[in-house]
Amino acid sequence: MQLPDFTAIDFETANPSMDSACQLGLVVVSGGEIVGRRTWMIRPPMERFDFTYIHGISWRDVADAPDFRELWPEIRPYLAEQVIAAHNVSFDINVFFALIKRYRIDYWHGRTIDSVTVSRRTWPHLVNHQLQTVAAHLCIPLDHHDAASDANACAEIIRRAEQEQAGVVKKAMRWYGGK
Fold it and tell me: pLDDT by residue for the chain (179 residues), tens digit each?
């Protein structure tokens, strides 16, 4: 089986609100190869930052950044009508849908790949399947909670899983129609 083309994403959020994205990283995989990487700082709709201690991003870092609606024309080609992958994809897709709802922008539905599921099926012996654990097992460099680095690790996990166990990715793909 051939690895499907996909875009691996990772959102960092400012606080527990799903629409508080403050950073997006993505990695585009086509023909089994990484063909693009992008990252954006995003100004969330509120100044409350509870998670600076996790990712190091504060309001000061994003106060002058565009909000998601302003960035959407630039981000859209990477996400619209694409297979979207993430490590624990339900979190990142729910952030994405919260942003779509808040800013009343284009609706997305399509296939997703969860690299947690893929890693569990490929390396069941690991003590856990957290991003940092799987990345360390595969010797993938990781600056955890930097959206670009997390998206890159997700893409590499999926690529390497497919190399090791052909067909594992397609079996793990799910349809996501949103809310």
Answer: 589 999 999 999 999 999 999 999 999 999 999 999 999 999 999 999 999 999 999 999 999 999 999 999 999 999 888 899 999 999 999 999 999 999 999 767 789 999 999 999 999 999 999 999 999 999 999 999 999 999 999 999 999 999 999 999 999 999 876 54
* C-alpha span between 25 and 99 (Å, rounded): 15
Task: Copy the structure tokens of residue 112.
Answer: 């997703």
Find, among 163, 6, 166, the residue nearest to 89 by Cα: 6
- Ramachandran region, residue 178 (left: φ > 0; alpha: ψ -120 to 50; beta: rest): left
Q: What are phi and psi of 49, to 5 degrees?
A: -120, 105
> Greatest CA span in the chain, whole angstroms?
47
Residues for the chain: how many in total? 179
Q: Which residues on adjacent β-strands are paired with residue 54?
A: none
Query: Does pTM surpass 0.85?
Result: yes
Torsion of CA 29, 178, 45, 11, to 10 degrees: -30
Per-residue CA distances from 44 to 9, 58, 59, 167 (Å): 18, 11, 9, 38
